[in-house]
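Human: Cast an eye over this sequence-structure pair and say how the chain folds.
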Amino acid sequence: MTKVVVLLSGGLDSTTVAAMAKADGKELYALSFDYGQRHGKELHCALAVGRSLGVARHEVLHLPLGALGGSALTDASIDVPDAPTDGAIGDAIPVTYVPARNTVFIAFALAYAEVVGADEIHLGVNAMDYSGYPDCRPEYIEAYQQVADLATKQGVESGGPRLVTPLIHMTKADIVRAGVAANAPLDLTWSCYRGEGAACGRCESCTLRLKGFAAAGVPDPIEYATTG
C-alpha cells in the first residue's frame, strides 16, 4: 500500500484531499500544526477528520510561527476582515496571509515523509477560488518540488517525495463535489477564520466555502452565524 503524508488542517480542502487519497487505497499519515493560530477550532476538526478517515498516524507539531505576528490569523490585535462586498476576493494578498506558512509546513512534511517512508505529500492548496496567497500557486509548488528533490536523502536517491496537489486548478464547487464523491467527512470540517461558536459566514474563507457549496448544489453541513 502506498504511504502518503497529508497536511491536514481540518478545512474543506485538506479534508477532501485526504479522503481522495484514502479512496485511492493509500495509507494516510496526517500532519497538523499548532502554530499559534488565533483559535483551536480548526485543529480540533483536523484531529476529528483524521480519526474519521482512519489515518495510520497523526502528528501534531507545535511551532512558534505565530509568535512572529504579521497576520490576522496569528495576531489578536489584527482584526479578521469580512470578505470584500464587491466580490474581489484574491485580487490582493489579504491580512489573513501567514508569512511563509506553507513553506514551513511542507518542510516538516518532507521530514515526516522520509521518516515513515512515504512517496507522496498531498496538499490541499488551490489557486482558483482562493484568497490570493502566494504559497498556493502552481509555480510555488513546482519550485518546492525542486527543493524536495535536492534537499532530501529520498530525493537524491530516487526522486521525491512528490508533492501532489489534486485541487490546485479546481473551483470551490468542484472541490465540494470531489469531497462528496470521496465520502469526505465534510460535517467535521471548519473553514472560518474566526473561531467563536458557529462559523461567521462573512470572512473570505466562509464566503468562498458557502459559494462553493451553493454552486455545487450541496447543502453545507456546518452551522453559520450568518450566510451573507
